[in-house]
Specification:
5 strands
């Protein structure tokens, strides 16, 4: 079947673009209506400080090598304590704080045993997070 240009008797090969333009105009109207109603950002609110609110200090347990061979000195929040008093002291501190994170700082000269023991005591005392750090 041959198509000939200019004759009105035969089939035509021209595309009818009227329905295409109708669809494009409808899509244009839909997008023009939707775009102004789209949100431009996220709604957020910042926490407000309460006047007179006390900021909780982090709980810090320091382990230092003593003068004698194998001696370990314990400090909880800048107070010297004995090994037996570490657990009860941590329980008392963590019971009063909403933030139950304990920082354990140990000298590099110490073995792992006292650090592991303090980490266990902190967990038994109610610490939810442990952060281990070494000191020079």
């Amino acid at each position: 079947m041959a198509f000939t240009a200019g004759t009105s008797a035969g089939p035509s090969s021209e595309i009818n673009v009227t329905p295409l333009i109708d669809v494009l105009l409808v899509l244009l109207i839909i997008f023009m209506v939707i775009v102004p109603s789209m949100p431009r950002g996220l709604d957020s609110s910042l926490p407000q400080d309460k006047p007179g609110a006390v900021v909780a200090q982090p709980t810090v347990v320091e382990l230092r090598a003593g003068a004698a061979m194998g001696e370990v000195l314990y400090r909880v929040n800048q107070r010297d304590v004995t090994r037996e008093a570490v657990g009860p002291t941590l329980r008392g501190i963590l019971a009063a704080q909403p933030e139950r994170t304990v920082f354990v700082q140990a000298d590099r000269a110490l073995t792992y045993e006292p650090v592991a023991w303090v980490a266990g005591e902190a967990t038994r005392s109610g610490a939810s997070n442990l952060i281990l750090n070494s000191r020079q």
